[in-house]
Write a structure and sequence with these properties.
The protein is mostly helical. The protein folds into two domains: 63 residues, no CATH class; 238 residues, MetI-like fold, CATH 1.10.3720.10. 69% of the residues lie in helices and 0% in strands. It has 16 helices and no strands. Helix 6 packs across helix 13 and helix 6 packs parallel to helix 16.
């Protein structure tokens, strides 16, 4: 098993390298960029914004920005009337004065040391930005995964035992309808109904906690935190439990029809003993082992619209805004961290299989 783990870890290196290389290459050919963004702001806004964006460097403001250097042709659209020396200093500030391969190599070296630099347009390090947004994403991802599993596993078992019954039919209809409704659409409906949109004002609409959160007792803080999560979690869980419910049901049905279950029943064991003493462990292997992957998926994806609707400032919104705003250090850092965690979680899922069922031996197969 140790050899298998080492092989998987070794394979993470070229995988991460390939992901970063492809993304970096795409970014080079994508229109726009941080320099273009600054130039657009200079053309459309007052020159006072220049000192804020470039960190207040006096030699980049005023006369340096607008001078008699307009005779030289610039490769940037919107650079007419700007001093070429100023544009070169702007390129140097963002690191674009170096060739692409050198910038890519430096980025990889920094990322290997978990040095992600600073945001282009925020006076803060990338790690501080991610740390600031983590509570929202962890809250949504963790609780959505736990709640959806808490619903889907018992429901899937009950549907498998009552396969073909009226209960199975109508719950299947509910599951399919819930899966078909987009979470953001259901979120909007919840806002209209329960968050002061048009009807009731029961639940808060902004943030994870209230303004007086620090003054509340421990129990009050827990209630306030949970109260803020009711609506966004309801919107996310609606479709999240459908897949795991049907997976649980089909897994149990497959095990129930096997010969060892028939033999256990012939021995006179009760249905409960057969179900939970024999079937449960084998049937739940694929469901439980997929928990790490389900959490990481819920943690990193699918919450952008929910964060927007409920005014929750999490990693989904951070990544989206960084892409739109061409804040490349944040874009590449979040991609690197998410990819690394995703690969680690895939390995953890394999190890979970062996923990649940020791008969599975991944070390016996090739990497």
């Amino acid at each position: 098993m140790l050899a298998y783990i080492l092989r998987r870890i070794a394979l993470m290196i070229p995988t991460i390298f390939g992901i970063m290389l492809i993304t970096f290459a795409i970014i080079q050919f994508a229109p726009g960029g941080p320099v273009e963004r600054v130039l657009a702001q200079l053309q459309g806004q007052q020159e006072g914004s220049l000192s804020r964006i470039t960190g207040g460097q006096g030699d980049l403001g005023g006369g340096a920005a607008r001078g008699g250097g307009g005779s030289e042709t610039s490769k940037y659209r919107g650079a007419q009337g700007l001093d070429p020396a100023f544009i070169k200093k702007l390129e140097a500030q963002f690191g674009f004065d170096k060739p692409a391969y050198e910038r890519f190599g430096k980025m990889l070296w920094d990322y290997l040391r978990f040095d992600f630099g600073r945001s282009y347009f925020r006076d803060v390090t990338v790690l501080e930005l991610i740390k600031e947004k983590l509570p929202v994403s962890i809250s949504l991802g963790l609780w959505m995964t736990l709640i959806s599993y808490a619903i889907s596993i018992p429901l899937g078992i009950r549907k498998a035992v009552a396969d073909g019954s009226r209960f199975d039919v109508w719950t299947s209809a509910v599951v399919i309808v819930g899966y078909a409704i987009p979470s953001f659409l259901f979120g909007i409906l919840l806002v209209i109904l329960f968050a002061g949109g048009s009807f009731l004002q029961i639940f808060p609409l902004r943030g994870l906690t209230s303004e007086n959160f620090e003054t509340l007792s421990l129990w009050g803080k827990a209630v306030d935190y949970a109260w803020h999560l009711v609506l966004p979690l309801s919107a996310l869980v609606l479709g999240a439990f459908a897949t795991s419910t049907l997976l649980t049901k089909n897994s149990f049905l497959d095990e129930i029809r096997k010969q060892y279950v028939v033999t256990a029943r012939m021995k006179g064991l009760t249905e409960r003993r057969v179900l939970y003493g024999h079937v449960f462990r084998n049937a739940m292997l694929i469901v439980i082992a997929g928990f790490p992957g389900a959490f990481i998926t819920a943690f990193f994806t699918g919450s952008l619209l929910i964060e927007t609707i409920f005014s929750l400032d999490g990693l989904g919104l951070l990544s989206f805004n960084s892409i739109v705003g061409r804040d490349y250090p944040v874009v590449f850092a979040t991609l690197y961290i998410f990819s690394l965690l995703g690969l680690a979680v895939n390995l953890l899922s394999d190890l979970t299989y062996t923990w649940i069922d020791p008969r599975i031996d991944f070390s016996a197969r090739g990497a």
